Amino acid sequence: MNIILEQIIIYGLGALLTAGILTIYIRKQIKESKIVDEKILLAKEDGLHEPVSLYPVVDPFRCIKSGACIDACPEHDILGIRNGRATIINASHCVGHGACFRACPVEAISLYIGTEKRGVDLPHINPNFETNVPGIFIAGELGGMGLIKNAVKQGNEAVENIIKSLNSKVPATYDLIVVGAGPAGISATLAAKKHNLKVLTLEQDTLGGTVFTFPRAKIVMTSPMDLPLYGKVKLHETSKNQLLELWHKVIAKYEISILENTRVEAITSENGSFNVQTSQGETHTSRNVLLAIGRRGTPRKLNVPGENTEKVAYRLLEPELITNKKILIVGGGDSAIESALLLNNQNEVTLSYRSDSFSRLKPKNAIAINNAIKNNQINVIFRSNVISIESDSIVYSKGDEKESNKLPNDLVFIFAGGELPTQFLKKIGIDISTKYGEAILKHT
Length: 444
Prior knowledge:
Helix 4 packs parallel to helix 5 and helix 7 crosses helix 8 (363-374). Strand 20 (348-353), helix 8 and strand 21 (378-382) form a beta-alpha-beta unit. It is globular and about 100 Å long. The protein has helices at residues 2-45, 68-72, 99-103, 148-165, 183-194, 240-253, 334-343, 363-374, 422-428, and strands at residues 54-58, 79-82, 85-88, 109-113, 120-123, 136-138, 174-179, 199-202, 219-221, 225-227, 231-233, 237-239, 258-259, 264-270, 273-278, 283-291, 298-299, 312-313, 326-330, 348-353, 378-382, 384-389, 393-398, 405-408, 411-414, 418-419, 432-435, 438-441. The protein folds into three domains: 2-113, Alpha-Beta Plaits, CATH 3.30.70.20; 121-297 and 421-434, 3-Layer(bba) Sandwich (FAD/NAD(P)-binding domain), CATH 3.50.50.60; 301-418, 3-Layer(bba) Sandwich (FAD/NAD(P)-binding domain), CATH 3.50.50. It is an alpha/beta fold. The strands form nine sheets. Strands 6, 7, 8, 13, 14, 15 and 16 form a seven-stranded mixed beta sheet that branches. Strands 18-25-19-20-21 form a five-stranded parallel beta sheet.
C-alpha cells in the first residue's frame, strides 16, 4: 500500500512539474507572440510590412522555431517568432542577402520577389545567368539579387558559365563585353582576366556603379566576399569610400581597364557575335555580353521648367564640400533622408515630399529625421510638388491649395527613384515578366 502511495505521489509530482513547465512555456510563447503581433501592427502602420525587393517566406509545416533565421539576420526585426513559427515583420527592410535562408536548419525558408499586390519586373534568366537571347547574360541587381556579396558571386559564376560555351571561332574583337562597373561587373571583369579572356568593361558613370552614387558617409552593409584573382575580402560595416578604395586597388593591381562615362545605346547581333554601340559613337564587337547594370537605371525626373539647370542634381557625392546653401531635397526615401541629414549641419535644408508622411524608411533614418524635424534642423513640406525651378528659388504647390508657394533656393537634389531599363532590355530582345510573389531562391 505504501509503495502504491509513493508511486502516486511521485507520478503526481512529475505531472505537476510537467504541467508547470508546460504552463511557463505556453505563457512565454504567448508573450513572445504578442510582442511580434505588436511589431507587425506597427510595421503595417508605418508601411514597412510589404516587401520592396527580395524577402523570406517561411513554410509553417517545416519551421521548428529554432530561431536560427532571426539570429542570422543583421537587419533586425525582419523575422520574429509568432505562435511557435517564424513569420515576417518588417519585410521592406529585407535586403535579400539570404542569411536566414542559409541559417535555417530544416530548409523552411525561401526567398521570394513581388507580392499579389506589387509586381516586380525581372528579365528571363536561366540558372547559368543566360537570358533568352543566347550569348547575353545578366548578373547582379538587374536579375533580382542586389546585395554586394551576391552580385560579386553572380558576376564570377556568370563568367564561369560563359567560358563553357565560348566559341572562339566567331569573329569579334572581344570574348566578353561587361556592361556596368559595379560589384557584379568588377567581379566578372576579374574572372574574365583570370581566364585570359579578351574583355572590355563599359560604365555609363564611373567606377562603382550604383555604389558610387551613394553619399560619402553612407555605410554599405555587406559581408565577407570572394573576389576573383584577389581572394577573400572581409567587409562588414564598410563606408562607400572604403569600398571604392578596394575597387581601385584591385583594378590597379590586375591592370583592369574600364571605359567610364560610356553609355551603351544599343546591342545587336550579327553572324553569331554582338555589336555594342556606345554614347561615344563607337561600336565594339564581342562573342558574349554580360549586363551588370543596376535596376535604378536612369534617374527619374520631375519634368518641370528649370530642371535642366546646373543647380539640379540627382545624386549627392561630396556633402562635406557644400556649405551655407539653401537646399531643397525632393523625395521621401532613404536616399533623400540620408542626404538631408548629411547636409543639414552646414546648410539650410528643406525636404519636399508628395505624401502625408514618410514610409518604408530604415529604422535609423526614421529616428534621425524625426529628431531633426523635432529640433527644427530640417524643414519638411509634406504633400508638396515642385512646379518650377528658378535661378534663386523654387516654386511649389502644397496639398489642395490652388496658390503656389516660392522658396529661396541655391541647390536642388532630386531623389525620385530610377526608371528601370525595361525598354533597353526589350530592344535587345530580352523577355521580361512581372513576378507577383515567386520564389527566386528555394531549397530543392
